[in-house]
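Hey, can you fold this one?
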Amino acid sequence: MTHTPIASILAAVRSVPVPPSPIPKAYAPPPAPFVTISREPGAGAIDVGRAFVDAMNQDALEDQAWTCWERELVEKVAADHHLSTRLIEELEENNHSWISSFFSSLSFTDSVAHDEDAIYHKVKRTIEALASAGRVVIIGRGGVFITRHLRGGIHLRLVAPFKDRVAFIAEKMHLTERAAGMQIREWERHRRQFFKMHWPHETVDPEHFAVTINTAEVQHEQIVQMLRGLVRQRIAAASVALGK
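Sure. Predicted structure:
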């Protein structure tokens, strides 16, 4: 499988035109579909997201191609705000949360101190812009809460029993099961802190999502096909609403 190079993705996003004034409702195009994936650590969200994008792009026109944003999202924000390349390297270290890495690796040209909330605001703006442009899969980063006001979104939650997630991470990262379990607990702790800071009154409940899937019971290929069906249904519904 191949994926769109990050340079091409960034160029595509930056080329999205911004209308100088609001488009009249009567002429507004239907909202472009997008997907957010919330997940428990080790539930396989990145694999599912990339497999879905590959499946959607098999027959897609070039200007209708889908992209997947996980580490690519971090790279875009880093590029847009002149962050140190050390940020990207630290994201791979087990003992760093991604938002802490954002904060510790900032290198703004105006030398003004930015706290963690201000940094995340930049991430939120990027996620909103991507979702508004459509045909993107946004993995994690609180995408479900950031984009819930936008039409066209399909929000997916992936979960799995702890033992299955341990086995998945152990294989992916070439760790012992003990080390994989410790890594998952560390990620879970960082994510609880992250949500407590930015959405203290929100909980990751099933009603926030179109569907919640146990990846230990449903194969990735089946999830991809289900998600493709939901996207097609959303596009069809939008076309009917416009009388097409």
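The chain is about 50% helix and 10% strand. Let me know if you want another pass with a different chain boundary.
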